[in-house]
Amino acid sequence: MLIAFEGIDSSGKSTHATLLYHRILALGGDALLVAPASEDYPRICGQIKSITHDYSNRNMDTATELFLYLANLAQRYRELIQPALATSRVVIADRLIDSLFILSVKGRDMPPRFVQRLITFCTDACRPDLTVICDVPDVRRSFAGRASSQAMSRKESEPVEFHIRLASGYRDLATSRRRRFLVLDTQTKPQEENAEIVWRSFLSLGEHT
Description:
By secondary structure, this protein is α/β, with parallel strands linked by helices. Helices cover 53% and strands 12% of the residues. The chain has eight helices and five strands, in the order E-H-E-H-H-E-H-H-E-H-H-E-H. It has a five-stranded parallel sheet, with helices on both faces.
């Protein structure tokens, strides 16, 4: 079973991915968390992330960005996700295919079919059984008071309009493919309430797989 958590920066996706992971482990389940903070995160992916997130790389070309993120995705899939799924482990991913698709298509205005073909190649057409979108309805309010600085990542330093486009893209994607998506309002709803919604969806998914 593969579950992905997606959303804009600071939407709570990493928190909810970690909460689900630990809840599964606490009940004796076998799960793998694929996230930059996890101990199993591939070294190569960490090196790629240091480039893509570096604030001093703000002049990075969009094609360079796309292929760096694709390399990161391919490595995570081949090194961690594919082997874990082969042994029937529950795999929880902090970002996966949809974040790259939305960034490239909605954020960088790239052709959707072109981006999708590359993602499909990197993942052998693997798709999550469930994708949880951590939605921020009012992005402008969420980003209020943030100032562009070297303490921020390259993507976080983008204008708020950029992040609004990404958030809107996630919602549109979830609407068009309802069966695979669960949308959480992580801006106004309590974390405990959203975590319970995720847990119930996880249990329901297990009943049908």
